Amino acid sequence: MTYAQIPVLKAYALLDTMTAEQRDGALQMLDLVSRPMTTRDLEDAMRARGVARARAHQLANTIKHLHVIAIAPVAAGE
Questions:
Q1: Residues 53 and 75 in one domain
Q2: How many domains is the chain partitioned into structurally?
Q3: Could you tell me the pTM of the whole model?
Q4: pLDDT tens digit string along 19-75?
Q5: What one-character DSSP code corresponds to residue 72?
Q6: What is the DSSP string of 4-33?
């Protein structure tokens, strides 16, 4: 494996090519999407996909300690 194949080093190389404004924007986005989701965030994400409120609450309380940073819906059949 070369250094160029290591994801973190690719990220650093990309950051080096960005302007200060682009870098600030990228870091703000990273901060927003990398913080663990709150119980409320988890519930809202599940409710948006049709999970019943009581079930979403149960699931969110069950997984909140996993420090989930994203929930991505999967298309039917995947």
A1: yes
A2: 2
A3: 0.55
A4: 999 988 988 888 887 888 889 999 998 999 899 999 999 999 999 888 887 777 666
A5: -
A6: GGSHHHHHHHHHHHS-HHHHHHHHHHHHHH
- Do 40 and 70 belong together in one domain? yes
Secondary structure of 48-71 as H, E, C letters: HCCCCHHHHHHHHHHHHHHCCCCC
CA count, 13 A, side-chain hemisphere, 44: 6
Residue-wise over 26-65: b if at least 16 C-beta within 10 A, else e? Answer: eeeeeeeeeeebeeebbbebbeeeebeeeebbeebeeebe
